[in-house]
User: Which sequence fits this backbone?
């Protein structure tokens, strides 16, 4: 099972203050739009997303089809195949990808402690 790039999506109160803080500890901007209240930051292979006003909780995120630089992978497990495999193992879906679709899609599961895990395929 290839999950793709991993990042942590953080719910922040003040995106400008959070950006400044994470830059002080070595992160640099990889993508996003601060005017839309979201940024993606990177330090070596560590990727975090800062999101103001978009989520209630921090989210563990996997991006099938991407590496940690948001570059397309030649080979990856499609998000719908991941969903089918997890459902077959008894993992409860909070949201589901349309299994009859192609291309970008996502689904969300929760771990036993209520931490949301987003599987978000962009291609």
Assistant:
């Amino acid at each position: 099972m290839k999950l793709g790039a991993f990042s942590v999506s953080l719910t922040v109160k003040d995106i400008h203050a959070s950006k400044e803080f994470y830059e002080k500890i070595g992160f640099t901007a990889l993508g996003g739009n601060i005017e839309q209240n979201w940024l993606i930051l990177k330090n070596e292979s560590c990727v975090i997303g800062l999101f103001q006003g978009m989520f209630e909780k921090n989210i563990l995120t996997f991006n099938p089809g991407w590496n940690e630089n948001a570059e397309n992978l030649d080979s990856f497990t499609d998000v719908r195949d991941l969903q089918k495999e997890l459902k077959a193992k008894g993992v409860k879906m909070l949201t589901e990808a349309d299994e009859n679709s192609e291309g970008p899609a996502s689904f969300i599961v929760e771990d036993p402690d209520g931490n949301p895990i987003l599987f978000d395929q962009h291609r």
